[in-house]
Amino acid sequence: PTAQGAITNRLGYTTSAGIYLPANAAAGLTVTITAGSAAVYAGAPNAGAHYPLAFLSTGQSFIIPELAAEEVASVQSGSEFSYSLTAAPAPTPTPPPATDTATPLPTITSPPTATPTTCTDPDACDPGTDNSQLITWSCNSSPCPWGTTLTDEALVWPEALGATSSRLGYTTSAAIYLPANTATGLRITITSGSATIYAGQPNAGSHYPLAALATGQSHVLTGLAPEEVVSVQSSAEFAYEFTWQSAATATPTATGTTLTPATETSTPTAVPTEATPTATTVACTDPSACNPVSSIDAHWRCNIPNCAAPDWVGSVINWPSWAAYASNARSGGNSRTVYSVDGEILYPYMGAWADGCQITVVSGTALIIEWKRGTDVWRQTPLSPGETYTISLAAPEDGAMIETFDYYPTFSVVLENCTPEELPVTPTTTTTPAATPTATPPTATPPTATPPACADPESCNRVTGTSEAVTWSCSASPCPWGATTSGEAVAWPSALGPISNRLGYTTSAAVYLPATAATDMAITVTSGVATIYAGHPDDASHAPLTTLAAGQSYVVTSLATADVISMQSNSPFAYELLFPDGSSTTENIEMAASGKQEQDTTNGQLPSQVYLPLVSAGQSLSTGDPADEVTAKLDAILPIQVFLPLIASE
After folding, report:
1. Residue pair 269/236 in contact by the 8 Å Cβ criterion
2. How far apart are CA 143 and CA 7, in angstroms?
3. Where are the domains of the chain?
4. Nearest-CA neighbor of 167 among 112, 78, 107, 231?
5. What gap in Å lies between CA 546 and CA 567, rounded to an integer?
6. What CA–CA distance (Å, rounded) separates 332 from 587?
7. How many whole angstroms separate alpha carbon 277 and alpha carbon 290?
8. Is 627 helix (H, G, I), strand (E, B) or coil?
């Protein structure tokens, strides 16, 4: 309502109605969804992303907790919903005192008196109860972006848990950062006040919020990356309790975001008392082997060079690498590759074969994405347990994904009519595989060879190797990515004339290949995942041409004369490069594909080669000329590249 001071501006956008409610008006407001479903978000108006406070289905409610003074709240959904709002009850006025003696200010109700947890080993720290402490962050080294000192309330972890007190050049007055290996499985309950749980790498510029909890609400820590730390902070004092989930407990659910449905009994189910522990149920995450299938905790990591943007965190249904993409092919800081908590590459981005797939949610909350790959626009449909949705792609949409909201726990779904099909090699490929593979493709073994130091371009026509750890060092203005940054990249053979300078940086190896050498080159990733970028050396950002997973290939075309290309990743990868030699022009490559090209093979030299489209299981390939026909029929699942020698047609 306008009377509550809602605003319409956010991150350079103006909304057609006031949907952003300031923190002072939002605190204590009860949001109830009466039809449909929606998510409650909060964050600063100019923040790049707002964090979810709750996901609500029909009949569910959420009380917005105290937010930071500069934050706003909104309630949004990908589909229509109905709601009701109930303001926080006005405080009961205190009768004036009978004397001039000042009446002490009312205080927040304290939890039961608890001795601060001073356990000497982790096993003795369960459960832990205490009040927050006022913490001071003191700058002791660079970069210290928050000034010399700052203070806030935070949960101080027992010393036995191995918490740390260092972050981004600051030292805290107590150990408030708990390592992920200790924090995973921990249930945190706020018993008085409110607080937000944050996670991230110690040296990350910002930590992402896992949950905003009010009194009585809990959250279970899951999906943390191994190197991350967790903290619990607030602008005001709070009290808490933490305990570890039992090994026999099912997949934890954050009770701080979705309230218990009214139809459930308020009496908790008794815990079994048998002496023999109940075996932990292992979730089945392979869509080809189980139904229902469970999602996998996932991190979307920025895959462009010098990107310091934090991970996006959620969970996804993972598909075979030959049937789905690991990256979203978007641009800039939104270009992401998906990893599991253990650092394994996940493949959640389904191809056009997703059309007609029916999803029924068994547990948790699922979010169905329908979109055109590489764009910043999509349709999303949230689903609660028992709800069903059928993917129906509308032009120009060509893919889908089954995930959940940011920071939400894992979910499980029943899938029907969701048979994976092999992805096309490039967006323009339209061949449909004759048969759908049913086995997991074998993992490619990375070659051990390093890129050959060929003496001239002609001898570089075929190269295999592994990526190198490359450092970008600032050598001239503007250096927008800091003094140094690093990543994995292809170090091109020196005979091809690569360069090592870009936008004020010098790379430790020549990773930028000029368009004159790169055009018509065929690139195949044989292990890992890598992205190919192109642009002018002085451009602020380079455009991603494609992201390749193991077994996928790409032919470089349509580069501007002054462009350079690079091939980069956050993790090591192996590759194979095929360069057309001086005689393999675009024209004679096309002629050779029709079986019409003749080539001299005298002097013991190997015949030149041209590359033809990738061939997958059940598919055939022909040059088109019966006299020179080359046909490949594969029993394996992985696609292969067919190379056609340029030889005399006799």
Report:
1. no
2. 34
3. 2-86, 122-244, 293-416, 457-578, 583-650
4. 231
5. 10
6. 35
7. 25
8. helix
Omega prior to 437 cis, within 30 of 0: no
421 CB contacts (<8 Å, ≥6 apart)? 323, 351, 353, 432, 433, 436
> What spatial distance separates the first Cα and last Cα of the chain, rounded to whole Å?
82
Specify the 3-state DSSP secondary structure of 585.
coil
Strand bridging mode 178-179 / 9-10: unpaired
Helix and strand counts by DSSP (H, E) for the chain: 4, 47
Whole-angstrom distance, CA of residue 181 vs CA of residue 225: 9
Can you tell me the mean pLDDT for 132-139? Answer: 93
pLDDT higher than threshold 70 for residue 90:
no
Q: Could you tell me the pLDDT band of residue 485, with boundaries at 50, 70 and 90?
A: confident
491, 575 Cβ separation under 8 angstroms: no
pTM over 0.85: no
Cα 604 to the chain's mean position, in Å? 51
Q: Is the peptide bond before 396 cis (omega within 30 degrees of 0)?
A: yes
**DSSP bridge partners of 629:** none
Least confident range from 1-5, 48-52, 410-414: namely: 48-52
The total of other beta-carbon atoms located within 10 Å of residue 454's CB is: 17
Residue 426 identity = T
Closest alpha carbon to 136 in 201, 69, 71, 233: 233
Three-class secondary structure assignment of 286-344 = CCCCCCCEECEEEEEEECCCCCCCCCEEEEECCCCCCCEECECCCCHHHCEEEEECCCC
Q: Is-cis flag, bond preceding 143, omega within 30?
A: yes
Q: Tokens in use for 296?
A: 């996998």
The SS3 call for residue 159 is helix
Q: Are 238 and 132 in contact (CB under 8 A)?
A: yes
User: Count of CB atoms within 10 A of residue 501's CB?
Assistant: 15
What are the angstrom distances between the C-alpha of 475 and each of 5, 281, 305, 508, 537? 49, 55, 17, 12, 14
Block residue for tokens 């709240």: 73
